[in-house]
Amino acid sequence: MSLLHTREKKLISILYRNNHWIKSSELASQLSVTSRTIRNDIRKINQMQKKTIITSSSLGYKLIDPAFVMKQIYREDPKIIPNTQKERIFYLLRKMMTQDHINIYDLSEEIYVSASTIDKDLKKVQAFLDNISDMKIKKKGDHIYIQGNEKEKRTLVSEILFQETQNSFFNLQNYQPYFPNYQLEYISEIVLSITSKYDVLINDLSLVNLVVHIAITLDRVQDANLIKDPALSINQETPEYQCALDIANELSFAYSITIPEREIVYLAYLIIGKKITNRLAHTDPSLEGALDSTYAHLISQVLKKLEITFGVQLFDLELNMNLALHTKTAVDRVKNGLLVKNPFLTELKSHYPFIFEIAIFLANELYKETGYAFREDEIGYFALHIGSTYEKINQKKRNTLQVAIIHSKYFKEITDFIHKIEELYHLSIRPIHVSTLYDQKKLNNLEVDLILSTLPIDIELVHPIVQISPFFNQNDQSKFEKFMKDFYKQKQLKLLKKLIDQYFHEQLFFKNLLFHDRFELIQYMGDVLIQRDIVSKSYVESILKREGISPTSFASHFAIPHAIQMSANKTAIGTVILEKPLKWGDYPVHVVIVIVVKQEERKDFMLLYENLIPILTDPRKIAELTKAKDFNHFKEILLKEYVHTS
């Protein structure tokens, strides 16, 4: 099949995945081009192949022979010309996974770039490898190759697939084009049937991950790329091994492949890494053997450290058990080079930043104790466990509204009435019996945030009043909820203004600076903070370490670098508005807010972190902040933006 450009390949992939007529407008929307461009691309594809492979009708377009087309594209002639550096990086990775040695000069002619450009790309490829394994790119004369064991290479293949099918975690059909020799739905049916037989629970996301890993295994075994780790062993009586054995037997028969014993053990570890572990060991006898007391004790100690560091009390038996189980499984995954993808990662980082920060702390403490480093996706699952407990424990603390209820002495159901409101909103309510106007005047002396009254009040009071019926019906609830929303918003605004005035400093505000990368910026700000005796050199190293675990950038083009430990001499916030956007993890960044925290003021960090990020998550707000004339104007925009955030 003649050379195809990346967009043309994507167009064919969309047609393959859908397997029905698709309008040009729909294809154009998915590829961010015009319908005319789609028509031109399809005409070009058919002309280049010297036959019609994409047919058209009034219903749209579709592939004539999908299986043949995908086989040609992904197997017989995988020369899809990459246009950008990112595309070249994945092209190089795929090519090095299918060929032992690649000639750099042949490669440069193949993708129409210079050998020096490929050398630059290889540095990015190595950085990508460093994030997931110990594999190295080696050069021998004019040839390059990847050095690493088979488990690492399979991890790399899965990472490439997951990167290329972003936001499609749950859809097996998005991975099918990469495996034309195997039917992923068929493999999925086998896995579900056999895991059900042995009572091994796997959720939807884990199932997709597992099926993709199995397809990679079949591919590698077919090409004689086998696991050779002599230390890989398992108790053959475990349900996971029995599952692996049955799955291997079914697939061996279906695809005429001999699957060696060591590959079956590897498959068993894949299953261990994907099974559900969120049941409670203390209530589920079947998990008694699964829960290692070492991990339970370790998690207990980490939660105590967490309380000291953040001032957050999170110890909960259910959380302890769930985290211990998850840690054991996560360590098994790291040991065996298995990847887990977390479709909730971006949402967790942007909408629950403090919860994710707690999970970062947890992962770092586990690394200190176990020596195993966890990737962002895994840390995201720790955050999911922590988040549910954090919400449960802190719900009552969050609603600190002091409410008084004015009622008639004839209102006999007042106790039930109060109980209903307290249950609905987790509030502490003070009932006040009022029978005369004089009593009402005394209300001005009450220390409350709100007065709810079942009686009409005609005089002016210093406290806001919401009049409700004795039945607290839907209309009453709506009025009360509106008040609460406005009250908390004003309370947060007042608090945020106080924190901004207290910790943002004009001497730490910089505009129109340029840096090569995020680490240079952090080092620059670190030097400024050291000169002012705000932090030590080791604190700056802690900020850099935190960045290495998970970039602190957000999709709306800002970053908030900070340390894991809170040991600054003073709490302070530095601000950098960049002259040009700086690549920071996955996102270009325009505004950088560096937060350093003194241990005694750690709760202020929590409040700042949770309240600043919602302000900055709209790119339009960042655009306005980049135009700030000076420090005071920047602060003014921050608070103004907060007022418009609800």
From TrEMBL:
Matching SUPFAM superfamilies: Phoshotransferase/anion transport protein, PTS-regulatory domain, PRD, Winged helix' DNA-binding domain
Keywords from the named record: Activator, Repeat, Transcription, Transcription regulation
Transcription regulation as UniProt keyword: yes
Entry superkingdom: Bacteria
PROSITE patterns: PRD_2, PTS_EIIA_TYPE_2
InterPro entries: BglG_antiterminators, HTH_Mga_DNA-bd_dom, Mga_HTH, PRD, PRD_sf, PTrfase/Anion_transptr, PTS_EIIA_type-2_dom, WH-like_DNA-bd_sf
PRD domain mapped to chain residues: 178-281, 290-396
GO aspect biological process, one term: regulation of DNA-templated transcription
Domain (PTS EIIA type-2): residue spans on this chain: 502-641
Designated name of the protein: PRD domain-containing protein
Species whose genome carries this gene: Shimazuella alba
Organism lineage string: Bacteria, Bacillati, Bacillota, Bacilli, Bacillales
